[in-house]
Amino acid sequence: MRKLLFATLVVVFVLLIIYLPPGSLAALQHYQAQFSAWHHQHPLQTAFAFFVIYLLVTTLSIPGATLLTLLAGSQFGLIQGTVLVALAATCGATLAMLISRYLLRQWVQQRFAAPMSAINRGMEREGLYYLFALRLTPVFPFFLINLLMGLTSVNTLRYFAVSLVGMLPAIVVYLNAGRELSQLRTLSDILSPGMMLMFILLGLLPLVSSRIVRLLRKS
């Protein structure tokens, strides 16, 4: 079901780009160019501001992390973007977990009793591998994993390390998607080899992640 939903979202995304009203792409490129100019003039300040914004978004579970990841791919490239997004996302996830553990424990227990029991069973059965599997192929939403893991006994440093490794493949794929999207000049570029590769990677991400989890479980 999740694979079908993901494929549907990709198709809708392609159709939206193809049927953008005249001038929409130019307007988006205009704002991107302004951001790029500021980045070139103040690279360190821009990178720091982006890191702080991404950290707040993930810590407070504000929608928009995916769009920020695409933006990072278009502005910072694959290497710098990976460093910024991976660290910000992992730090935000860890802070959200600690907030749940020390400030929201009672509320989380009452509000998410059913999924909490599933998390407890998974952690008892498979330990940190279960957390890795959730990060690689999330059964629960990103924010919910952070909240529920705060109620477990998982070590903070191990939580940080496992989350970082588990989220890294998806981060790299979405950064590459942002980089390809930033190179669009006309709507016909949607059929370029780079864009086609981007859509293939986006489509394969959940399939490959599920396959990796199955292989690791067997081993």
From TrEMBL:
Residues 62-179 form the VTT domain. It is found in: Cell membrane. The keyword Transmembrane applies. The keyword Cell membrane applies. Keywords: Cell membrane, Membrane, Transmembrane, Transmembrane helix. It is a multi-pass membrane protein. One of its GO terms (cellular component) is plasma membrane. The chain crosses the membrane at residues 50-71, 83-104, 128-149, 156-175, 195-213. InterPro entries: TMEM64, VTT_dom. It comes from the Bacteria. PANTHER family: GOLGI APPARATUS MEMBRANE PROTEIN TVP38-RELATED. Belongs to the TVP38/TMEM64 family. This is TVP38/TMEM64 family membrane protein. It comes from Buttiauxella agrestis ATCC 33320.
